[in-house]
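Sequence, please.
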């Protein structure tokens, strides 16, 4: 799951609606802060419902007539509690359900002049005074920090970076390491780094996320910034899924008979339930042993078979290669059938989910 900030520079065009929906889906976004959307308040709720049905959202229309910032989040994955808003930022607390993680998040959109941005710096300084937990302030600051933050444009002057440097000095916040694109905004001639992710000491000391992705700009002139969070804790339990091919394995009948013949102290339905629970554990082991990275196994056997057959082109080939080839063909058939069975079952399940009639009736249940 990702937390994203993005200056989309006017999202009123229909094609941008479609592209943003695709971006959110493909990048598994849980929270996205959209800046400079240029959507009037009267149209905002209807448009957001179209973009991300069922999602929650907040805005800063009350603090700024143009409402330059939205924060949208998927309530199935994330809770966001708004704590403070201003014309150039929205501040709140994020809670990620799957990993039980809380942190403070500020979506930033700095105005275009040095004078106007001073209100943003003062607001951020005020927030910093009362924050002790992990905090990230991310978005479009509209401000450079170093001489290398702009190319092919006017030379960066001291007055452009003075307020930003004073803010970092006063708050002791630091910039996360970047990976991806070098600059975050361009007009196809000038390139600047003005979108940033700043964090406090508590973030650096407690969080694993110490890098920010500078993604491709797609339909905007700004790049999205993304922070990646794992959706589940390491080593956590995974749901058991029974694939039909397991029933065709020679070990299947043996495993079922062994579990069902095992004596139990309980009686009635409790006895049945306990045996089914034991069966689940054994079948999970059986499925894992035979289907772990099935597609990778098919590719591996295919390459081995190809290599073996290349060696067999020589008249003076090793006679044992025939036996190796025969064994590899058997393995390729086995793993290809397993892969096909898994794909077919998944496609049928998807069809049932979306109400598509299933023509094949031979699937085991």
């Amino acid at each position: 799951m990702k937390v994203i900030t993005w200056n989309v520079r006017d999202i009123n065009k229909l094609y941008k609606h479609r592209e943003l929906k695709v971006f959110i889906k493909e990048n598994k976004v849980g929270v996205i802060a959209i800046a400079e959307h240029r959507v009037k308040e009267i149209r905002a709720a209807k448009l957001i419902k179209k973009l991300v049905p069922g999602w929650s959202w907040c805005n800063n229309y009350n603090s700024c007539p143009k409402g330059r910032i939205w924060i949208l989040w998927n309530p199935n994955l994330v809770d966001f509690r708004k704590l403070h808003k201003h014309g150039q930022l929205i501040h709140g607390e994020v809670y990620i359900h799957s990993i039980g993680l809380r942190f403070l998040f500020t979506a930033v959109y700095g105005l275009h002049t040095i004078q106007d941005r001073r209100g943003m710096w003062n607001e951020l300084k005020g927030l910093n005074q009362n924050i002790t937990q992990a905090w990230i302030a991310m978005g479009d600051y509209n401000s450079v920090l170093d001489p290398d933050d702009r190319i092919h444009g006017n030379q960066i002057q001291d007055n452009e970076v003075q307020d930003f440097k004073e803010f970092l000095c006063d708050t002791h916040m630091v910039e996360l390491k970047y990976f991806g694109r070098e600059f975050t905004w361009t007009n196809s001639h000038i390139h600047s780094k003005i979108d940033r992710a700043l964090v406090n000491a508590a973030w650096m000391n407690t969080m694993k996320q110490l890098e920010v992705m500078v993604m491709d700009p797609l339909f905007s002139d700004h790049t999205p910034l993304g922070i990646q969070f794992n959706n589940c804790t390491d080593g956590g339990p995974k749901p058991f899924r029974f694939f039909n091919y397991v029933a065709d394995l020679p070990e299947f009948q043996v495993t079922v008979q062994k579990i069902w013949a095992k004596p139990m102290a309980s009686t009635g339905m409790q006895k049945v339930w306990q045996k089914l629970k034991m069966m689940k554990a054994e079948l999970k082991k059986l499925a894992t042993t035979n289907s772990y990275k099935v597609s990778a196994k098919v590719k591996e056997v295919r390459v081995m078979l190809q290599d073996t057959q290349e060696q067999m082109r020589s008249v003076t080939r090793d006679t044992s290669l025939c036996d190796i080839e025969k064994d590899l063909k058997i393995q390729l058939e086995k793993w290809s059938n397993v892969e096909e069975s898994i794909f077919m079952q998944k496609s049928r399940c998807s069809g049932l989910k979306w109400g598509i009639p299933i023509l094949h009736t031979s699937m085991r249940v």
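The first strand starts at residue 2 and ends at 7.
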